[in-house]
Amino acid sequence: MDRLRAALSLGFEAAAPKLLAYAVLDLTSGVVPVAIGWLTKIALDRLSTQASARTLVPLAVGLALVGIVQAVIPHALKYLHAELERGTGTLAQGRLFSAMARFVGLGPFEDPAFLDKLRLAKQSGRNAPGSVVKGTLGAVRAGITIVGFLGSLLALAPLLALFILAFAFPVLAAEIVLSRHRTEMMWRISPRERRELFFDQLLSDVHAAKEVRLFGTGGFLLSLMQEERRVADAARRGVDRRELSTQSLLALLAALVSGTGLIWAIHGALSGALTLGDIAIFIAAVAGVQVSVAQLAASVAQAHQALVLFGHYQDVIVVRPDLERASHPHPMPPLERRIELRDVWFRYGEDQPWILKGVDLVIPHGQSLALVGLNGAGKSTLVKLLCRFYDPTRGAILWDGVDIREVAPEELRLRMSAVFQDFMHYDLTARENIALGDLSAREDNSRLIEAARKAGVHQTIADFPLGYDTLVTRIFFPDADENDATTGVLLSGGQMQRLALARALVRGRRDFLILDEPTSGLDAEAEFELHAGLREFHCGRTSLLISHRLGSIREADRIVVLSEGRIVEEGDHGALMAHGGVYARLFALQASGYTEELVPPSVEGAAL
Ligand SMILES: Nc1ncnc2c1ncn2[C@@H]1O[C@H](COP(=O)(O)OP(=O)(O)OP(=O)(O)O)[C@@H](O)[C@H]1O
Question: InterPro entries in the record, alphabetically (predicted)?
């Protein structure tokens, strides 16, 4: 009942006048068949008693008017229903995405059960209020028609009226059971549909297209996609078949009921107990009640199914933040002393292996720290904990002595900037791609240009047909525009990475800068220039740099080596080289790939 109220109030909030108009028209259409039945009966009775033509005119006009109403109402209802769906769709979308914005971290986006719920919530938030209104009003409308016709039947054949009414109960029960099966099936196949969608996107994605073609995996991926569809279709087919057999059985029952009624009516007519008009209204009533009972059942099923799905929407919009928010958040003044990881342990789930195993690390204010380690050592995980995308499973991260769980996550993030290893490229303009780092810079050309210059991408953008307002994508334009550069340009991987870097830099002098492999896609010269620029940029600022190119981090104030979730070495480049441990071995290994004659002295080591 609460769910019904919530769905209706969402519809009401989104489009109250249209919802009311829909209700009025829908309910009116419930009276129409009964009115037609009675007007026909009266007309036939008058005809059979040789009544004058004048008495028939109003009836004919009435019948014509009711006929017009009957013809127009479905179209008006269709329009109003679409309007209702558009209104609720926009409102529900806003609420759904606002609820998702309350998530502090990344956990829910990695939880398959939540992703299934989210997909159904998106669908039901848009459709459910309309379907609930349609289903509920459809049921009421059918109820009105049934009551109208049953009243007529009660006057003619009370027993038959009760017989027909009794038939309504199994129909309703069957429809509700079928609806429950359908919604359960939809939930069951949801992961399959998600996987099918994944393969579908993969097979139409330009990035994947290269490997798909080179490795010839198109057929294989297609077969996986179709397998998902086959399994999901088998489940759908099962429910469809069950519906078909149940509906056929109900149709048989309906035929028996109408057959019995017809035989009774013929007897009545032959014995002179029923007039021609009685027969007409009787036939209309039997058919009308049966159709309306079927409509009632279908409407109840529709509303029931929509309400079950609407439950997913409701679950998502009231979902609690994935990570605890402090009830009285600590203020977040600028960093003055240090960021500290104190005995931090972390794993992604209780059944997952430990990724960080007791990390103690201090990043003093104003210092640059470089993090080094083999693939999978836990470097990016540590970055995600610093941004509070997850909370440590044990231990704490302190910002000037305050646990970051005690401050508002938004405040924490306002004090930071970052380039992530898996940086984003937005299918927007160059201006927007940079300004998404700090929206206040959107119209501030000098700030955008400064950030782009530092990231080494200003000249590239300036040469675009529309400069900073050039779209750095072509996905929004059809083939016909392919040769028109003003409809968008395509960037190389390195240029996209520079844009991502500019996005991080446009945030200005934030307290803490994280650079996770910021130059992995850049050429050696660009990387050298960029690191020189960055050195100047984060000179005297607190920063964390992760890079596998050890030459680019050698000038960091401190280098920390992470191995299997533990810090195994710490010191500056000179000290670590002298120590002769993991770092020295890795550095020597990289350096051995270069010969002195080939590397100009100024860039030696920089591009390792
Ligand atoms: N979202 C996640 N859920 C579960 N496990 C994860 C997740 N992200 C990373 N891991 C696991 O955590 C481990 C450390 O990954 P992480 O990305 O932190 O390593 P890294 O040191 O940054 O590696 P690389 O040098 O390859 O970037 C890996 O074994 C990875 O499988």
Answer: AAA+_ATPase, ABC1_TM_dom, ABC1_TM_sf, ABC_transporter-like_ATP-bd, ABC_transporter-like_CS, P-loop_NTPase, Type_1_exporter
Residue nearest to atom 17 of ligand 1 (CA): 380
CATH number of 421-509: 3.40.50.300
Helix (H) / strand (E) element for 370: namely strand 368-372
**What tens digit of pLDDT does each residue of 396-433 get?**
999 999 999 999 999 999 999 999 988 899 999 999 99
ipTM for the whole predicted complex goes beyond 0.90: yes
Q: Is 107 exposed, middle or buried (0-12, 13-18, 19+ CB in 10 A)?
A: middle
% helix, strand, coil for the chain, step of 5: 65, 10, 25
pTM of the prediction? Answer: 0.74
Which SS3 state, helix, strand or coil, does residue 394 take? Answer: strand
Atom of ligand 1 nearest to the CA of 106: 1
Residue 51 has pLDDT above 80, yes or no: no
CATH number of 2-317: 1.20.1560.10
Cβ < 6 A, ligand 1 pocket: 110, 348, 352, 355, 373, 375-381, 421
The pLDDT of residue 252? 87
**Arithmetic mean of pLDDT, 40-52:** 78
Give the start-to-end residue ranges of the domains of the chain.
Answer: 2-317, 334-415+512-608, 421-509
